[in-house]
């Protein structure tokens, strides 16, 4: 996975417009993480459906079972994961935006 952000050729206006229409914002991602992270919406926004669904199910099951204390075995790892996403978000946004460039270059 490349570590540097890539952009379409600025001379190609169509590619640039498609990129701007599909690019993911790090600010929006952090806002989703902070305010709606318990729903894992930041992961869904970045196209990470499987991990988003797992995170959402961990939160739902943990919250539902917290009254009998078993739920905390799901909520504690969920909270650690949520916190680690604070540091993982820049790389996830960069990877998704690079994937947008790849799709544009392939003509999708």
TrEMBL record:
<keyword id="KW-0812">Transmembrane</keyword>
<dbReference type="InterPro" id="IPR007829">
    <property type="entry name" value="TM2"/>
</dbReference>
<keyword id="KW-1133">Transmembrane helix</keyword>
<dbReference type="GO" id="GO:0016020">
    <property type="term" value="C:membrane"/>
</dbReference>
<feature type="transmembrane region" description="Helical">
    <location>
        <begin position="53"/>
        <end position="84"/>
    </location>
</feature>
<feature type="domain" description="TM2">
    <location>
        <begin position="23"/>
        <end position="72"/>
    </location>
</feature>
<keyword id="KW-0472">Membrane</keyword>
<dbReference type="InterPro" id="IPR050932">
    <property type="entry name" value="TM2D1-3-like"/>
</dbReference>
<dbReference type="Pfam" id="PF05154">
    <property type="entry name" value="TM2"/>
</dbReference>
<protein>
    <submittedName>
        <fullName>TM2 domain-containing protein</fullName>
    </submittedName>
</protein>
<feature type="transmembrane region" description="Helical">
    <location>
        <begin position="21"/>
        <end position="41"/>
    </location>
</feature>
């Amino acid at each position: 996975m490349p570590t540097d952000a890539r952009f379409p050729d600025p001379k190609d206006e169509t590619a640039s417009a498609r990129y701007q229409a599909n690019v993911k914002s790090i600010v929006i991602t952090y806002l989703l993480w902070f305010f709606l992270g318990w729903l894992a919406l930041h992961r869904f926004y970045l196209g990470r459906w499987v991990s988003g669904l797992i995170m959402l199910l961990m939160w739902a099951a943990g919250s539902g079972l917290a009254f009998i204390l078993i739920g905390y075995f799901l909520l504690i790892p969920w909270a650690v994961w949520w916190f680690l996403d604070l540091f993982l978000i820049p790389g996830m946004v960069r990877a998704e935006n690079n994937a947008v460039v790849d799709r544009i270059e392939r003509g999708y």
